Inverse folding.
């Protein structure tokens, strides 16, 4: 019996998510086709000009926008940001530093502190259990 290895493919939306780009801003041929794992790896290791440009200037998908602003995706929504933004628009928000952004960054900082506290607590508990 011979085994036939099938090529793993993904929808353009999945590939765009993995590449960290906004699907609607990608070229039509990318949006209309399927992307193999090999093609995705090639795009990641040697990004073509269109991909470099998207990563540099956007528009960026919400997870990237949230990351660049230092807030959660939910925080973006609470701040009224529901669309993809360009790097220029993100920089303008940072410069303006609106109240919602300050609040969401503070919330994000608290979440990070709590995550560290819980991780340390769990590690200490495991240490106690393994020591007894």
């Amino acid at each position: 019996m011979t085994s036939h290895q099938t090529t793993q493919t993904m929808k353009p939306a999945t590939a765009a998510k993995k590449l960290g780009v906004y699907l609607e801003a990608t070229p039509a041929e990318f949006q209309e086709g399927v992307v193999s794992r090999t093609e995705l790896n090639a795009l990641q290791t040697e990004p073509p000009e269109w991909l470099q440009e998207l990563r540099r200037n956007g528009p960026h998908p919400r997870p990237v926008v949230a990351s660049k602003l230092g807030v959660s995706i939910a925080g973006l929504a609470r701040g009224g940001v529901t669309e993809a933004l360009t790097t220029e628009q993100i920089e303008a928000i940072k410069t303006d530093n609106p109240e919602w952004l300050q609040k969401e960054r503070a919330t994000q900082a608290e979440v990070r502190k709590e995550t560290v506290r819980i991780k340390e607590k769990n590690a200490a508990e495991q240490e106690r259990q393994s020591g007894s």
